[in-house]
Amino acid sequence: RTYATASDPNYVNIVEVGPRDGLQNETAVIPPALKAELITRLGRAGMNTIEAGSFVSPKWVPQMEGTDEVLRQMEHLQGVHYPVLVPNMKGLDALLALLSTENPPVSRPQHAAPPLPPAQPLTDEIALFTAATDAFCQANTNCTVAESLARLAPVAARARASGLRVRGYVSVVVVCPYTGRVRAEEVRDVARALLDMGCYEVSLGDTVGAGTPADIRALLETVMGGAQGVGPAQLAGHFHDTYGAGVANMFAALELGLRTFDASVGGLGGCPYSPGATGNVATEDVLYALRGHGGGAGGGRRYSAAGDLDALAEIGAWISGRLGRRNESRAGKAIMARKERERLEKERER
Amino acid sequence: MFSHRTAARVLCPRLRRGAISPRTYATASDPNYVNIVEVGPRDGLQNENAVIPPALKAELITRLGRAGMKMIEAGSFVSPKWVPQMEGTDEVLRQMEHLQGVHYPVLVPNMKGLDALLALLSTENPPVSRPQHAAPPLPPAPPLTDEIALFTAATDAFCQANTNCTVAESLARLAPVAARARASGLRVRGYVSVVVVCPYTGRVRAEEVRDVARALLDMGCYEVSLGDTVGAGTPADIRALLETVMGGAQGVGPAQLAVRMLVGSGHFHDTYGAGVANMFAALELGLRTFDASVGGLGGCPYSPGATGNVATEDVLYALRGHGGGAGGARRYSAAGDLDALAEIGAWISGRLGRRNESRAGKAIMAWKK
């Protein structure tokens, strides 16, 4: 497992979105127990932020049914965050109710043994979603961006008052499938609004994966520029690999100072707008590209990030098998192929 | 929940009903013009399981030419005992369409291969004598090819495994081949394998790559393509490699270099997904030529499902951006009709019975459905 200090300017945070954004965009629906196992494995593979699920109606997103079960069954590691998507106040109600039943206040008589440290909360973080264009917002949540922000602000406030962190997500930051190229100023304004309502960070999503490094550069220069600009420490890149530019886009963002990127083990999560096309960039590919061959020995300057690449490659292969879909991680497949070669060589030696 | 048709119009503006897909023209004097060398028909096919007949290879090359590619590897004069996929290269050269101004390099491993090529060229282009009173002679047919490709490697171990000699011996054998080819009017392009990681010896010293590239240029290559054969490089590696290769008194200029990304050839199938990112690292250092393969052709014959070459469609998409470059920040330009290339990638993948490994290609084809 690679350990890196957060004070290292070349340390990169990877937010693992496979169990939520990934699974949500796969056709197969897997039971809560399997989702919980995925999250447990990812935690043991060293991921520090792992999306755990979504409190959204199963009518809309059947893949996210049973998120409460997942939260109960999965392993919770100290220091790891497990954000849960909350679309509205109703979803937050459900989450807070769940959290209070799982962590009831305990009163102990004076003479009893010192109380056990409180069990880890099922989660300490929620995710709020909006978009950069009204058209996309309308299609997904039946309201404009302004209405969406107005609805989310009280949700953010209540979540924070309950001790939860709030992460914001903006969809379609480069190209909107309904209206085309998106103005970077609009992305900046939405990101600013999310931060103002209490999000600690805003993840900028190239939802259709149409962005290229030049687009990312132009987008970030605007989002981070001027009096209303947002600092790089408050931004994350959520780049889809639909056109093959996901990893290249990450490097463009790294050069502009971003240090947090969303990725999905095995490249889980196809693109709903290009059936059959890839979606999320793969965690294994991201980690490999950041650290380089051999985990960073020799060669030029490298970035560091948490995560056991071999273990993640195993997880990507395993979950792909369970979902009956192709492993979309190139580095993951390469590592599994290498492990297979090594295994065969060992057998030959016997 | 949303209209696929609306989304399609936006995501693929060229697909608007009635619109003709334009070919992108770019001037070579544009500092942001990028040359793509299409290696699908040679390096791509060479590393695919299926063996396809010369007629199909010729059709692939013809389609690629019509899709605007300016350099298209056409085949290899290597013994079919070693590379069955390259059998019939002479037939391919005869059957394929030759477009004016397009180069069709052919891999030549040694003097014997050059002999065979020169023999073929002389039979196809016999000198013609015409009586004075006859109509003015037709312009000579374009030669079957005007370019050869010579290969070597950055490490002795890799060279030994592939050509049974050291790098120094390899260079010594290739120098006369280059000289004879040039004397016969052919251009010579040089290729160096394993420039980042060698599957036998590990990390490769950039100084060795520089020295081999220098030797290839000195023997007459107009350009040297640096191949990350196992695809293990990341942007930091490419940067470090190029800074050394281009640095110092023995440094090679960026205009004489190309990068071949993510190649998974022979039994090396470790391709880690950083190809396009690596290209941008090289672009920033001044390189303007990259090798790519339509549909990402060129998997590993020994490891089904492993990817190989970076896909031409993905490279073109990443360079030009969405909508072919309208709006947004500074972009690169390159020749090539992306829609047509996506069609070719899908078509040849179907004919080979393998998965289309181009992400941009698949995304474009998904919208066309």
From TrEMBL, chain A:
<keyword id="KW-0479">Metal-binding</keyword>
<dbReference type="GO" id="GO:0006552">
    <property type="term" value="P:L-leucine catabolic process"/>
</dbReference>
<dbReference type="GO" id="GO:0046872">
    <property type="term" value="F:metal ion binding"/>
</dbReference>
<comment type="similarity">
    <text>Belongs to the HMG-CoA lyase family.</text>
</comment>
<dbReference type="InterPro" id="IPR013785">
    <property type="entry name" value="Aldolase_TIM"/>
</dbReference>
<dbReference type="InterPro" id="IPR043594">
    <property type="entry name" value="HMGL"/>
</dbReference>
<feature type="domain" description="Pyruvate carboxyltransferase">
    <location>
        <begin position="12"/>
        <end position="313"/>
    </location>
</feature>
<protein>
    <recommendedName>
        <fullName>hydroxymethylglutaryl-CoA lyase</fullName>
        <ecNumber>4.1.3.4</ecNumber>
    </recommendedName>
</protein>
<keyword id="KW-0456">Lyase</keyword>
<comment type="pathway">
    <text>Metabolic intermediate metabolism; (S)-3-hydroxy-3-methylglutaryl-CoA degradation; acetoacetate from (S)-3-hydroxy-3-methylglutaryl-CoA: step 1/1.</text>
</comment>
<dbReference type="InterPro" id="IPR000891">
    <property type="entry name" value="PYR_CT"/>
</dbReference>
<dbReference type="GO" id="GO:0004419">
    <property type="term" value="F:hydroxymethylglutaryl-CoA lyase activity"/>
</dbReference>
<dbReference type="Pfam" id="PF00682">
    <property type="entry name" value="HMGL-like"/>
</dbReference>
<dbReference type="GO" id="GO:0046951">
    <property type="term" value="P:ketone body biosynthetic process"/>
</dbReference>
UniProtKB/TrEMBL annotation, chain B:
<dbReference type="GO" id="GO:0046872">
    <property type="term" value="F:metal ion binding"/>
</dbReference>
<comment type="similarity">
    <text>Belongs to the HMG-CoA lyase family.</text>
</comment>
<dbReference type="GO" id="GO:0004419">
    <property type="term" value="F:hydroxymethylglutaryl-CoA lyase activity"/>
</dbReference>
<dbReference type="InterPro" id="IPR043594">
    <property type="entry name" value="HMGL"/>
</dbReference>
<dbReference type="InterPro" id="IPR013785">
    <property type="entry name" value="Aldolase_TIM"/>
</dbReference>
<dbReference type="GO" id="GO:0006552">
    <property type="term" value="P:L-leucine catabolic process"/>
</dbReference>
<feature type="domain" description="Pyruvate carboxyltransferase">
    <location>
        <begin position="34"/>
        <end position="342"/>
    </location>
</feature>
<keyword id="KW-0456">Lyase</keyword>
<keyword id="KW-0479">Metal-binding</keyword>
<comment type="pathway">
    <text>Metabolic intermediate metabolism; (S)-3-hydroxy-3-methylglutaryl-CoA degradation; acetoacetate from (S)-3-hydroxy-3-methylglutaryl-CoA: step 1/1.</text>
</comment>
<dbReference type="Pfam" id="PF00682">
    <property type="entry name" value="HMGL-like"/>
</dbReference>
<dbReference type="InterPro" id="IPR000891">
    <property type="entry name" value="PYR_CT"/>
</dbReference>
<dbReference type="GO" id="GO:0046951">
    <property type="term" value="P:ketone body biosynthetic process"/>
</dbReference>
<protein>
    <recommendedName>
        <fullName>hydroxymethylglutaryl-CoA lyase</fullName>
        <ecNumber>4.1.3.4</ecNumber>
    </recommendedName>
</protein>
